[in-house]
Automatic annotation (TrEMBL), chain B:
One Pfam match: MmoB_DmpM
Family: Belongs to the TmoD/XamoD family.
GO MF term list: monooxygenase activity
Keywords linked to the UniProt accession: Monooxygenase, Oxidoreductase
Entry superkingdom: Bacteria
Protein name: Monooxygenase
InterPro entries per the UniProt record, alphabetical: MOase_MmoB_DmpM, mOase_MmoB_DmpM_sf
Length: 507, 90
């Protein structure tokens, strides 16, 4: 007689057994001693069992799907390298966006891996603990696959070779680095709010979706593939972000003001950091998919609007200064690209002025601002270049104490006036680019007074020496290859030689 | 005002039956194609039915296979063996 067919457990039962069912209450050590970090921020949790992972992914299923993602990804990467995929990109200027990505973003993936590993040990509730363990592995996978993919470009182009060293030292890379350092030195609930909610849920679409779609449009098969492979984990990270917020708000009413303050802080910090992506989308992609302003409308105004409307039932409101950030979406890419153009001598990627065709695109996408405020500046610089007087800014800029970006941003409501704010703390004066950054400092002055500001460090003699050559050496930047304009760079010479060879074959 | 929920999937062979199923099962859904990916928006609620996808591919489709092609989402998610639902207010 055949035994009756065993009934398979459903997803909810499997999830309950494979997460909740594996946890236990400690008996010979106090739970507070085993989990010492999840109470000091003042977040009150009364019942951890109320947590539920909406994807209900268990570790065994996780391994299965991640293994399949890796197999697919590596097949493409191998084929890209074998078939000289670098020859198929739209233009060698495009590669500079990847340089910015590898030096600015990939090291953050590694930082995220480390900190989620910490949370995967130290969160008392088993649901979020397992989710953090998975995310820790995801982030390590992202760092590894990005390094692996981009190593192919490193064989042919400048600016990639010293990426971890540059991340720790170069002036503009201190913007993403300090963002993540700030999150990793916060408590676990603030880290979740910063990275899982404000970054992954509210803002990450602005980084990855246009970036990877841009890669697809510019013929970069390798980046599309690692990008979408990483992004497939992102949906899970987003659900962790939204669940953490709801969980904190549902657990105790005292949590609301703490969470609101974090949401305000991390929205503003994320908005400033993503200005680098804005510039990449509007100026660095030879073939453009959408403007930063359009991406902001889709992913913040529309998607964020629906999100915050939903969260309003808990009393949470739209992040402070969201209106100002939306106004800045008309300006931030132009102002950032202008900063990099002026300081191209100290940047680890190449810069250029937009062509007539590109300026026409910018006018069309930014009818309120480009022709009025930014076109005249680029045209003046173009005239100066034609006369052999290419403009370099040789003065070191003042940096914002919070976001660490040079103070090149303008006042809300007046794009002709640079914005400055300052405050005093223990007899010292600190400077900021905006009210948002000033508020963040004033809420945690002990922390932000310690910021490692690249310009201050250069003036204090901590960055290799007193002149540009010394500092570039300390950055491990190859002067004349990694930096300066695209025009005349070794990257350009090589690309032009490839194109000439291709033409010869075609004839 | 009804919030828009949204799912973005890769535009590849594996995701295509999923995209088709979503568009058929959610008549008010709207697909926005961009290079490499498709963003599907829908007012209030969007469902991905395992049955619809399974019919198209001729085998049992596990909703967790969505992990292989998903790019991004907006809304609160709920998943079981039969379907995956995105909505607000859950």
């Amino acid at each position: 007689m055949t035994p009756p067919r065993k009934k398979k457990m459903n997803l909810k039962q499997r999830y309950a057994l494979m997460t909740r069912g594996l946890d236990w209450e400690t008996s010979y050590q106090k739970m507070d001693d085993v989990f010492p970090y999840d109470t000091f921020e003042g977040i009150k949790i009364t019942d951890w069992s109320k947590w539920e992972d909406p994807f209900r992914l268990t570790m065994d299923a996780y391994w299965k799907y991640q293994g399949e993602k890796e197999r697919k990804l590596y097949a493409v990467l191998d084929s890209f390298a074998q078939n000289n995929g670098q020859l198929g990109i739209s233009d060698a200027r495009y590669v500079n966006a990847i340089k910015l990505f590898l030096t600015g973003v990939t090291p953050l993936e590694y930082q995220a891996h480390r900190h989620f590993a910490h949370l995967g040990r130290h969160i008392r509730g088993v649901g979020p603990r397992v989710a953090a363990q998975m995310q820790s592995l995801d982030e390590l996978r992202h760092a590894q696959t990005q390094i692996h993919t981009i190593s192919h470009y490193n064989k042919y182009f400048d600016g990639f070779a010293e990426f971890p060293h540059m991340h720790d030292r170069v002036w503009y890379l201190s913007v993403p680095k300090s963002f993540f350092d700030d999150a990793c030195t916060a408590g676990p609930f603030e880290f979740f709010t910063a990275i899982s909610f404000a970054f992954e849920y509210v803002l990450t679409n602005l980084l990855f979706v246009p970036f990877m779609s841009g890669a697809a449009y510019n013929g970069d098969l390798a980046t599309v593939t690692f990008g979408f492979s990483a992004q497939s984990d992102e949906a899970r990270h987003m659900t962790l972000g939204i669940e953490v917020i709801k969980f904190m708000l549902e657990q105790h009413p005292d949590n609301l003001p703490i969470v609101q303050k974090w949401v305000d802080k991390w929205f503003w910090r994320g908005h400033k950091m993503l200005g680098l992506v804005a510039m990449m989308m509007d100026y660095m992609l030879p073939k453009r998919i959408m403007s930063w302003k359009e991406a902001w409308e889709i992913y913040f105004t529309e998607a964020g609007g629906a999100l915050f409307e939903d969260l309003s039932r808990y009393g949470l409101r739209v992040p402070k200064y969201a209106d100002i950030a939306t106004e800045e979406a008309e300006h931030i890419s132009h102002q950032n690209w202008a900063i990099f153009y002026q300081y191209t001598q100290a940047a680890g990627f190449h810069t250029w002025l937009p062509t007539d065709e590109e300026m026409a695109w910018l006018s069309e996408k930014y009818p309120n601002t480009f022709d009025k405020y930014y076109r005249p500046r680029f045209e003046m610089w173009r005239e100066m270049e034609a006369k052999g007087e290419r403009f370099y800014n040789n003065a070191l800029p003042q940096l914002c104490q919070t976001c660490q970006i040079p103070m090149g941003y303008t006042e809300p409501g007046d794009p002709t006036k640079i914005g400055f704010r300052s405050t005093e703390y223990k007899g010292e004066r600190y400077h900021f680019c905006s009210d948002g950054c000033k508020d963040i400092f004033e809420n945690e002055p002990e922390k932000f007074a310690q910021a490692w500001l690249p310009v201050h460090q250069i003036f204090q003699g901590n960055c290799g020496g007193a002149d540009l050559g010394d500092v570039l050496k300390w950055y491990h930047m190859d002067n004349g290859a990694d930096n300066l304009d695209y025009s005349g760079s070794p990257d350009q010479q090589q690309w032009d030689a490839w194109q000439a060879a291709r033409k010869k074959v075609a004839n | 005002m009804a919030g828009i929920v949204s799912i973005t999937l890769q535009n590849n062979d594996e995701a295509r039956p999923v995209i088709e199923s979503i568009l058929e099962d959610n008549p008010s859904a709207n697909a926005n194609y961009m290079p490499g990916a498709v963003k599907i928006d829908c007012p209030e609620r969007l469902v991905v039915k395992a049955e619809s996808v399974s019919e198209r591919i001729g085998r049992d489709w596990d909703p967790q296979e969505i992990h292989l092609t998903i790019v991004s989402m907006g809304g609160s998610l709920d998943e079981d063996d039969e379907e995956l639902v995105l909505s607000w207010g859950a």
